[in-house]
Amino acid sequence: ANATVSGRYDSNLKDIVIADSVSDGVISYNVTKINSNAFQGTDIMSFKIGANVTTIGFFAFDNCSELTSVDLGSKITDISSYMLRGCISLTSVTIPNSVTTIDDSAFKECRSLTSVTIGENVTKINPNAFRFCSSLTSVTIPKSVTSIGNEAFQDCFNLKTLIWLDPSRITNISPGVFGMYSLGVNSTVTY
Which of 105, 84, 89, 95 is CA-nearest to residue 38? Predict the structure, then answer.
């Protein structure tokens, strides 16, 4: 049996840990899903996803402006649309190897984000995924990526280093991945 986190929230809680399982005293339920909008706009500071969570809904942590630390677990398969949009205090994130897709606007407007580690099984980075991540300085695109959507890195004004581990695998790269701004004059592209 499985359980879903629907988003009940006590404003005194700042650090959220999603359990691996919950029990009603008789049956144990694996926690496998966090619903859309579950913690949207709350003032949580950190969250850790349980080992059994495979799905996190749209807007789940959208506009959590005090969020500084995230642990996405090891089983989620995609970073859903607007999942962490507007988390302006978030400085780094590691996308687990279980993830295959970074959906539209997933990290949009995470203005303090300086470091992103993209899991080695990500195949798609969808439009606006990192748009307005204006503190982002370096990105490594793993070998697995075959598609990068329009404006995925637009308005990442401080993006100076782009490391492409295997650009020959890209089958779809939209014009405007970096928006109207290309990498800066002192930028490095390595592949």
Answer: 84
Exposed e or buried b per residue across 72-102, where buried means at least 16 C-beta atoms within 10 angstroms of its C-beta: bbebbebbbbbbbbbbeebeebebbebbebb
Q: Cα–Cα distance between 162 and 191 in angstroms, integer?
A: 9
Model confidence pLDDT, tens digit, residues 30-54: 999 999 999 999 999 999 999 999 9
Size (the chain), residues: 191
Sheet holding 124-125, edge to edge: 78-79, 101-102, 124-125, 147-148, 172-173
CA dihedral 74, 76, 81, 85 (to 10 degrees): -30
Q: Give strand ranges (E) for the chain.
A: 2-5, 15-17, 21-23, 28-34, 46-48, 55-56, 69-71, 78-79, 92-94, 101-102, 115-117, 124-125, 138-141, 147-148, 161-164, 172-173, 188-190
The span from the CA of 39 to the CA of 153, in Å, is 25
- For the question of whether the overall pTM of this predicted structure is more than 0.85, the answer is yes
pLDDT digit string, tens, across residues 78-96: 999 999 999 999 999 999 9
| Residues in the chain where the model's pLDDT stays below 70 | 8-9, 179-191
